[in-house]
Specification:
Chain lengths: 161, 161
DNA sequence: TCGAATTTATTCATGAGTAAAGTATTTTCA
DNA sequence: TGAAAATACTTTACTCATGAATAAATTCGA
């Protein structure tokens, strides 16, 4: 009610704060809803999970294979995590650890033929799911959203160092 | 380059798919970056975590207390998860389980005075952090983002049932 | 070339999430 | 009334993530 006598901010700082918070909560809600859908569908359709899908996606994109450290960096998760995921995928015969002749500390991980086949099927479905989940936005809106998210991402990158 | 001779879709379906996927990946990246920042700051500044903060935020918003099932619904996590979080917060004297005289199966969970005090301090800082993290968008852009996310959320709700 | 520092991957402890099964208490209704 | 269904929460077993500690191989500098 009482406008402070101090001249400084042109906009109501409290309202601004509230707005940032509202955007953040919506962002979080939408992400969680989409993720939940993808997780559920991946599980019911393929008996798989998002982390496994993401790991296989990276291997699919790099047919020459990747080192554990590279997977860790690309997936933005810790090495221990990659070890566990890779162990299970290897048990199931979907990926393969192949010795690196140049460096006995490391090896390259790659999809097996069966892994390739299975990932191909999942990726195709996955893309259709995402299209459906974002069908609430038309072409222009998706472009707008992309632009705004890009700006946000750039700003966030300046913060994270 | 080559426009298909088929008359039907006004836009290239393959490009559309790619666009939905791009929006989704940006959305995910931004959410993860913001979450990582908030997690880190909550831990270093308050020795706490996001799930704990979220649970306490719901209790702060509902001073009359909430049932476990209500917390589960509001936080969009399973009951077992809420049990674990509540157990720890109760051990630390930040929340309290109070018997419901009307239904001995359930009880209401509420913040203790110490919990209120501690949450108040965290919430204040948290809001400043969010404002800073979203400072890459100006007022109009935040409003635009909010509008787009609302549309998306509505669409997603029709899917989840 | 030897030893120190770095890199690569694994293991372990911990925290947070899920699904499914279990327990206890109410509610419903034939 | 009392057996079946529904509800509220916990427990258990599992997945996935982190960070710290470890082990092994490589690299680099003196």
């Amino acid at each position: 009610m009482s406008t402070p006598a101090t001249a400084s901010p042109p906009t109501d700082a409290r309202a601004e704060e509230h707005e940032a918070l509202r955007v953040w909560l919506r962002l979080l809600t939408c992400t969680n809803l989409v993720e939940a859908q993808l997780r559920t569908r991946l599980r019911t359709s393929f008996e798989s999970t998002l982390p496994r899908f993401d790991l296989m996606a990276q291997l699919d994109r790099h047919p020459e294979g990747l080192k554990m450290s590279e997977l860790s960096r690309l997936l933005m998760v810790t090495g221990g995590n990659v070890t566990g995921l890779t162990d299970k995928l290897a048990e199931e015969g979907l990926v393969e650890r192949r010795d690196d002749p140049r460096d006995r500390r490391s090896f390259t991980v790659m999809l097996t033929p069966e892994g390739k086949r299975q990932f191909g099927a999942m990726a195709h479905e996955h893309e259709q799911w995402v299209v459906g989940l974002f069908a609430g936005l038309d072409h222009a809106e998706k472009r707008q959203m992309l632009k705004l998210l890009d700006r946000l991402k750039v700003h966030l990158s300046t913060i994270s160092d």
